[in-house]
């Protein structure tokens, strides 16, 4: 029936599942998302649960899938997201899935290691190639020098120049080491060589122009080829050690230039082969990853579902005697049929269709979880209410009322039709483009907050347009649709005499003077504030009065509405005593003082005219005097303004004051009477019953005794809270006036200080100036007025609902219904895109 | 005096239509109650808001204070006929 007003009725039920059918049944229930399972093994360690192995296997698969995903991302391939909802996989599918994922994992790891080894080989060969090329150059130069010198020195060694070219130049046997070192280490290397070998080595170096990939680190760095010439074995070891220290790669270099040429050619061919192999390996890897990228998301979703199912099954009680799994779950009453269907379907799917699972409803005293049926529109507002506290089971849900009153109170504080239009168009864009925007920018938290509240913002914007039109405020300007009710009928002499003139507020000649001119038509502007006030210097004085009165009126009405909702709660829970001891004193107090104030406001509006301006009663003073029982005769605004005022107000005050002890004492007395009745009942039956009943009753009495003092204290707090709250909350509603004033003033300042500069210039210059000035004006409007003021009004409207409205009836002590649903599990932890 | 009544009746009827008559015409569906509540609350809030500002301006205790230049402009712009 009226299920939007309260949370759904829930039942605790036990499911008896056949072990074979359990998996498919849980899969079905997970797809439906209508039951919340309870953990029947809370004291069991996670590693001792029944299905811990399956969970472990799922985690292994997840790890491998993450590794594969990382590899796919490294190669910058895109993952295809599955479009339709996939069914939960069958139990047997898990083994197949494991095998496939395992195979792919091994394959990719193999490819990776192979590729690494090949790459290292390739880099070494590249360095060797450069090494050979550079040393070739050295030795050729050396040959030149050697040839030149040997021409002079030794003629007979000409034929052996090739072989002993190095030894010829100096005439002694020289050894050499050639290698490649990183360019930035070269200087240190040289210095170290010089120091250690005491200058007895000769170093020749040449830079490799291209960037080479270092075989160890894989980075591309500049390298230099060097050749170190030394004499003797000791120096050789020293040089070798230094090369190791500086991480220079030493490559063998044959002395014979023919050998060098052969080696160089061999290196070239090997490099080419390696290139081909590397390319093939890379292509193979790409192919494997491309294949995987098509299905990896599907597998990830499937694995998540399997894991979720086994986690859930870990919560069940394994009844060995009856050979079934017992699960306890909360489900809404309306969905019990669906659950039974799911049970049947699960047994059919698993093949053991002969014996089906059983659903057994349990009766329990525990408080069920709170479940509201929501759609995408109401979800946002329910979140606002739940942020304060989740509704107690089956109490009135404030959401349907908050749905309208929250945007309305926001609008009262925001009231500018132009700003409202901008907000509405933003919200409309979000709502109309819902489907395409839903998955965009998921990581941006600010955007997700705005997008999640798009319906709230839409309503806020629409109401703001309405209140803006009533305040007659469009970007701080008024619009004149129906024609003002005020006219200026002053002559030129009056206008020349003074800087300002005040228009005559009465619509008839009450003092019968000849100078009277009717400047007010007698009928107010039909819709909203008269446009003449926009130009008035005393506009704020006028609107202050109106806005404050409205704020008080709407506040008291909302609070009264809250108290009536508590009455509805009393009826629903059959706490009829609550109506007598709680609802009546609350509403009488509120009515006697605050509804009376509202009546006074309407009375003053209709009975007092421009002619009574000096003697019109000040309602605030009258309210204070009513409380203090003082009725002065002195300032005309504080004297009685209707004949039976003293009597009536004293009577109202009397009724209100009675409510205080009524609320304080009523409920505890009722509870005490209840206790006495129970004790009488138990004493009459005590004589017939066994002794353990007596113990139970005394136990109950002990329980009751502790409760009594608690009841008194609780009721005392509740009384003070309510009565003080009535007054402070009423005043708290004045923030509606305060924020709307701030907004209007900010808007006006922005216009006069920024935009008007451009608009007040004449001619073409004015046009350009207006164009230029629009940018700062609009930026400041958006950031200060829309965002900052909007956030502020949102916050204050929310506070008014949470504290002033909900404290009259809302307990908010429930816990939310969190069903086992694959959809929420998949949405909670989205895959990184 | 009549003009006062005319606007009052028009707006009360307008919001009354939305808040009292329209809820009975909402077709049956899962959101029937919700829409009814929305209509009733919207019309109640909006009507009350309009009414408060209307009544406040009905018998003003003081008139607008205008700069003499603005008064001159309004005198020629709006004329003298009420």
Automatic annotation (TrEMBL), chain A:
<comment type="similarity">
    <text>Belongs to the V-ATPase 116 kDa subunit family.</text>
</comment>
<keyword id="KW-0472">Membrane</keyword>
<dbReference type="InterPro" id="IPR002490">
    <property type="entry name" value="V-ATPase_116kDa_su"/>
</dbReference>
<dbReference type="GO" id="GO:0046961">
    <property type="term" value="F:proton-transporting ATPase activity, rotational mechanism"/>
</dbReference>
<comment type="function">
    <text>Essential component of the vacuolar proton pump (V-ATPase), a multimeric enzyme that catalyzes the translocation of protons across the membranes. Required for assembly and activity of the V-ATPase.</text>
</comment>
<dbReference type="GO" id="GO:0000220">
    <property type="term" value="C:vacuolar proton-transporting V-type ATPase, V0 domain"/>
</dbReference>
<feature type="transmembrane region" description="Helical">
    <location>
        <begin position="401"/>
        <end position="429"/>
    </location>
</feature>
<protein>
    <recommendedName>
        <fullName>V-type proton ATPase subunit a</fullName>
    </recommendedName>
</protein>
<feature type="transmembrane region" description="Helical">
    <location>
        <begin position="583"/>
        <end position="603"/>
    </location>
</feature>
<dbReference type="InterPro" id="IPR026028">
    <property type="entry name" value="V-type_ATPase_116kDa_su_euka"/>
</dbReference>
<keyword id="KW-1133">Transmembrane helix</keyword>
<dbReference type="Pfam" id="PF01496">
    <property type="entry name" value="V_ATPase_I"/>
</dbReference>
<feature type="coiled-coil region">
    <location>
        <begin position="51"/>
        <end position="128"/>
    </location>
</feature>
<feature type="transmembrane region" description="Helical">
    <location>
        <begin position="550"/>
        <end position="571"/>
    </location>
</feature>
<keyword id="KW-0375">Hydrogen ion transport</keyword>
<feature type="transmembrane region" description="Helical">
    <location>
        <begin position="449"/>
        <end position="471"/>
    </location>
</feature>
<keyword id="KW-0406">Ion transport</keyword>
<dbReference type="GO" id="GO:0007035">
    <property type="term" value="P:vacuolar acidification"/>
</dbReference>
<dbReference type="GO" id="GO:0051117">
    <property type="term" value="F:ATPase binding"/>
</dbReference>
<keyword id="KW-0812">Transmembrane</keyword>
<feature type="transmembrane region" description="Helical">
    <location>
        <begin position="651"/>
        <end position="670"/>
    </location>
</feature>
<keyword id="KW-0813">Transport</keyword>
TrEMBL record, chain B:
<keyword id="KW-0812">Transmembrane</keyword>
<keyword id="KW-0472">Membrane</keyword>
<dbReference type="Pfam" id="PF05493">
    <property type="entry name" value="ATP_synt_H"/>
</dbReference>
<keyword id="KW-0375">Hydrogen ion transport</keyword>
<protein>
    <recommendedName>
        <fullName>V-type proton ATPase subunit</fullName>
    </recommendedName>
</protein>
<keyword id="KW-0813">Transport</keyword>
<comment type="subunit">
    <text>V-ATPase is a heteromultimeric enzyme made up of two complexes: the ATP-hydrolytic V1 complex and the proton translocation V0 complex.</text>
</comment>
<keyword id="KW-1133">Transmembrane helix</keyword>
<dbReference type="GO" id="GO:0012505">
    <property type="term" value="C:endomembrane system"/>
</dbReference>
<feature type="transmembrane region" description="Helical">
    <location>
        <begin position="6"/>
        <end position="25"/>
    </location>
</feature>
<dbReference type="InterPro" id="IPR017385">
    <property type="entry name" value="ATPase_V0-cplx_e1/e2_su_met"/>
</dbReference>
<comment type="function">
    <text>Subunit of the V0 complex of vacuolar(H+)-ATPase (V-ATPase), a multisubunit enzyme composed of a peripheral complex (V1) that hydrolyzes ATP and a membrane integral complex (V0) that translocates protons. V-ATPase is responsible for acidifying and maintaining the pH of intracellular compartments and in some cell types, is targeted to the plasma membrane, where it is responsible for acidifying the extracellular environment.</text>
</comment>
<feature type="transmembrane region" description="Helical">
    <location>
        <begin position="37"/>
        <end position="56"/>
    </location>
</feature>
<dbReference type="GO" id="GO:0033179">
    <property type="term" value="C:proton-transporting V-type ATPase, V0 domain"/>
</dbReference>
<comment type="similarity">
    <text>Belongs to the V-ATPase e1/e2 subunit family.</text>
</comment>
<dbReference type="InterPro" id="IPR008389">
    <property type="entry name" value="ATPase_V0-cplx_e1/e2_su"/>
</dbReference>
<keyword id="KW-0406">Ion transport</keyword>
<dbReference type="GO" id="GO:0046961">
    <property type="term" value="F:proton-transporting ATPase activity, rotational mechanism"/>
</dbReference>
